[in-house]
């Protein structure tokens, strides 16, 4: 691959980044090296290798789902800075 400064400028524009002239040249070389490495990876024979979502086996670490009693309105609103009856009172944000 041959990444040009124009390519870097296009990516920077899409990412809304402002780059100096030195950075554009530096990033063009770095992006070219990265894409060259990715192209090198295309040479690997991956036939018979199953796709994975994680590099290591994963187990579900969550607790078992079970019904529990609710904590109740008083406990839920105990630390509320302002409340009205059984509701939180919040500042008006829409005019």
Describe this entry's structure for a reader.
The protein is mainly alpha-helical. It has a domain at 5-41: Orthogonal Bundle (Histone, subunit A), CATH 1.10.20. Helices cover 37% and strands 4% of the residues. The chain is built from three helices and two strands, in the order H-H-H-E-E. It has a two-stranded antiparallel ribbon. Strand 1 and strand 2 form a beta hairpin. It is flat, with a radius of gyration of 27 Å. The model has no long low-confidence stretch (mean pLDDT 90).
Biggest beta sheet attributes? 2 strands, antiparallel
- Helix proportion range: 25-40%
Number of H- or I-type helical stretches: 3
In total, the number of strands is 2
Give me the strand/helix succession.
Answer: HHHEE
As a percent range, the share of strand residues is under 5%
Based on CA atoms alone, the radius of gyration comes out at 27 Å
Furnish the topology, listing elements before pairings.
Elements: H1 5-14, H2 21-41, H3 73-76, E1 83-84, E2 87-88
Antiparallel strand pairs: 1-2
Helix pairs in contact: 1-2
Give a brief rundown of this model:
The chain is mainly α. It is 37% helix and 4% strand. It has 3 helices and 2 strands.
Write a concise keyword list for the protein shown above.
Histone, subunit A; mainly alpha; single chain; 3 helices; 95 residues; two-stranded antiparallel sheet
